[in-house]
From TrEMBL:
Domain Peptidase S9 prolyl oligopeptidase catalytic: 482-694
GO biological process: proteolysis
Highest taxon in the source lineage: Bacteria
Gene Ontology MF: a single term: serine-type endopeptidase activity
Pfam families (alphabetical): Peptidase_S9, Peptidase_S9_N
Keyword Hydrolase in record: yes
The UniProt record lists the keyword Protease: yes
Span of domain Peptidase S9A N-terminal: 14-422
SUPFAM superfamilies with a match to the protein in the record: alpha/beta-Hydrolases, Peptidase/esterase 'gauge' domain
Protein name as annotated: Oligopeptidase B
Organism of origin: Amorphus orientalis
């Protein structure tokens, strides 16, 4: 066939095959759909219109098929969208964050997709709109704000935006006196930007030719970006670079890291053209973050076998590892997630027994206390502020039944003040819902936690449908937090479940270590064990489970579809990382070298190659019956390139013995995060939920 795909009536597109064969590590690898990878993929991320007509034609044929197959759910999707939107307070705003004479906030207008960045005098007074992202997004098919930072004198706002979905941000500088942007534009950046103390100099990260954040530059107001000064360049393609500023405003912080090793350089913010100073040279599999107070650095690290991390101090003038002195010791099973250093207090967010907690330490007396919470499962977060010399800590709290709350906490008096509670305009009564924390046994005997949410009127008798969500990579923990989106399914009788599988850090760092590299397959078998346990204990129906995951969680979806297709009625895979082996063999792709510590390097390590060959979803599609699938992609996605799900779907269509429903939709104007507007994203959520409801026969609409 010369066409990209053959389409007959209402039948699914059948992609043409053009096998490409190569031998790697002694194995012949045959890829029948390699042609879907655009040779000009770098240009496509900048401008999706340059995608080749043949590839575009195939993706558009799949989109048209998706629309036809999902058409019976149109009314249901409209209903779901209205429900989802009805739970969002449209004219919402964040709690203002004080900084010197002002307080800064983010505010939304009713019906608006994008936020306003605003400030008011600290003592109260008239609000000033610093940036209207809706105006900036006008007539653009995609728009997303990146990093932004106001100068220490409050005169300038540096802000970044991505207009393709390819995560290439342009930095602009706004004069807050006039409300207009300068002519200066800094292109092709990673989106982070920070000001030095002089209010004239800013630092940012630029992407290299392979779309990796690799260089830190210094820009001076009034000069062209072509003359910006290179401050730091990372030589290792496996490391990504970031730039920030310490809470004390004393240092510009350059952080370079992969998934297991890090290194920090400091620049005196008062001397922006001065040299950078290395804190401690990188050591493989050792991580550290730093903050400062007075003449000392505070270092959060896993050095010296502190797997679950400890906090040490070091003198500013000699911060190397040999001077590190323990302040908060390592306690196995108590994972320190992050720390914040104030002028008089050290705050750490940690997790023990699967639940987070906040601990406050008086840095003068050494006395510690934890902030207590009562629910069985909940989510906590530290809300960053601008001020160092304060006794006020801001944090967020929610549970699967409790909407998000923002508290200010006085670290001296230990009084907490509720500053904001998430409003659900259409109404929400926590007493109508039940949340539980369950545990199921993995094949190797590990106990895997699962958080569940269901309506109190749902019969827990083995007949309820279930949406089972999982991720399980990079040490990322999926919190048991409040989700207004989950309520539409739960109100229709679903049990909503989160599987806290290995590969995350839900039970400590070992939980991450036991779900990566040579132990990656534990992630997949944990998820399957959770599905089986929910069925065996009578929580859900065995034939009404829909699995959902995105990105690396999409790889999980591909793996469980191959390993246990009969356990799941359906699979929702959002921007799924499914072509694992081919991607990890291609060192030119943006994320490949940085990903080797997570998955292994199949180019140099035969065992890593064999392992990936064993579980890579694309390479393990075989002739068998597969569940129904909804697969979502973004054409400008630099993290999981569009051709991964495209190739996977093509192979599934050609291999499945049962002609399963496979709905594949590519957003032709977006990347990894999907649609950029807050309501546009809800259309995608409505599509996912309509799919789940229809295939489990929970609603009248039938698509399969």
């Amino acid at each position: 066939m010369s066409e990209a795909a053959t389409v007959t009536g209402d039948e699914a597109p059948i992609a043409r095959t053009s096998p490409v064969e190569r031998t790697v590590q002694g194995h012949a690898l045959v890829d029948p759909y390699a042609w879907l990878r655009a040779d000009n993929w770098r240009e496509v991320m900048r401008d999706p219109s340059v995608l080749s007509p043949e590839i575009r034609g195939y993706l558009e044929a799949e989109n048209a098929y998706a629309e036809r197959r999902m058409a019976p759910t149109d009314e249901l999707r409209q209903t779901l969208f209205a429900e989802l939107k009805g739970r969002i307070k449209e004219d919402d705003s964040t709690v203002p964050t004080p900084d010197g004479p002002y307080a800064y906030a983010v505010r939304y207008l009713e019906g608006a997709e994008h936020p306003l960045i605003v400030r008011t005098p600290r003592a109260g007074g008239e609000e000033t709109v610093l940036l209207d992202a809706n105006a900036e997004a006008r007539d653009k098919s995609y728009f997303r704000l990146g990093g932004m930072d106001h100068s220490t004198d409050h005169r300038w706002l540096a802000w970044a935006a991505d207009e393709t979905g390819g995560e290439m941000f342009t930095i602009r500088i706004r004069d807050l006196d006039s409300g207009t942007d300068l002519d200066e534009r800094i292109e092709h950046t990673a989106g982070s930007v920070v000001w030095a103390a002089d209010g004239r100099t800013l630092f940012y990260v630029q992407l290299d030719d392979n779309h990796r954040p690799a260089r830190v530059y210094r820009h001076t107001l009034g000069t062209p970006s072509e003359t910006d000064v290179l401050v730091y360049e990372e030589a290792d393609p496996g490391f990504f670079v970031g730039v920030g500023r310490s809470l004390s405003d004393r240092f510009i912080v350059i952080d370079t890291h992969d998934h297991e090793t890090s290194e920090v350089h400091l620049i005196d913010a008062a001397v922006p053209d001065g040299p950078s100073h290395l804190v401690a040279p990188r050591v493989v599999e050792q991580e550290y973050d730093v903050d400062d107070r007075g003449d000392r650095l505070y270092v959060l690290t896993n050095a010296d076998g502190a797997e679950d991390f400890k906090i040490v101090t070091a003198p500013l003038d000699n911060p190397g590892r040999e001077t590190w002195r323990e302040l908060v010791p390592h306690v196995p099973g108590r994972l320190i997630l992050s720390m914040t250093v104030f002028s008089g207090h050290l705050v750490r967010l940690e997790r023990e027994d699967g639940l987070p907690r906040i601990v406050v330490r008086d840095l003068e007396t050494g006395e510690e206390h934890a902030i207590a919470f009562d629910e069985e499962a909940y989510s906590l977060g530290l809300a960053g502020g601008y001020e160092f010399d304060t006794t006020t800590l801001r944090f967020t709290y929610s549970s699967m039944t409790t909407p998000a709350r923002v508290y200010d906490y006085d670290m001296v008096s230990r009084q907490r003040t509720l500053r904001k509670e998430q409003e659900v305009p259409s109404g929400h009564d926590p007493d109508h819902y039940v949340t539980r924390r369950l545990h199921f046994t993995a094949p190797d005997g590990e106990s895997v936690p699962v958080s569940i949410l269901y309506h109190r009127d749902t019969k827990i008798d083995g007949t309820a449908p279930c949406l089972l969500y999982g991720y399980g990579s990079y040490g990322i923990t999926i919190p048991a937090g409040f989700s207004t989106n989950a309520l539409s399914l739960v109100n229709r009788g679903f049990v909503y479940a989160i599987a806290h599988i290995r590969g995350g850090r839900d039970k400590g760092y070992h939980w991450y270590r036991d779900g990566r590299r040579e132990k990656k397959e534990n992630t997949f078998t944990d998820f399957i064990a959770c599905a089986e346990g929910l069925v065996a204990d009578g929580w859900i129906a065995p034939d009404r489970i829909v699995a959902q995951g995105g990105s690396a969680g999409g790889m999980l979806m591909g793996a469980i579809a191959n390993l246990a297709p009969d356990r799941f009625r359906g699979v929702v895979a959002e921007v799924p990382f499914v072509d694992v082996l081919n991607t990890m063999l291609d060192e030119t792709l943006p994320l490949t070298p940085p990903e080797w510590p997570e998955w292994g390097n199949p180019i140099e390590d035969p065992e890593a190659f064999e392992r990936m060959l064993r579980y890579s979803p694309y390479d393990n599609v075989t002739e068998k019956a597969y569940p129904a699938m909804l697969v979502l992609a973004g054409v400008t996605d630099p993290r999981v390139t569009y051709w991964e799900p495209a190739k996977w779907v093509a192979r599934l269509r050609a291999s499945a013995t049962n002609d399963p429903l496979i709905v594949f939709k590519t957003n032709m104007d977006a990347g990894h995060g999907g649609a950029s507007g807050r309501f546009q994203r809800l259309e995608e959520v409505a599509l996912i939920q309509a799919f789940a409801l229809a295939i489990t026969e929970t609603e009248a609409a039938k698509i399969a």
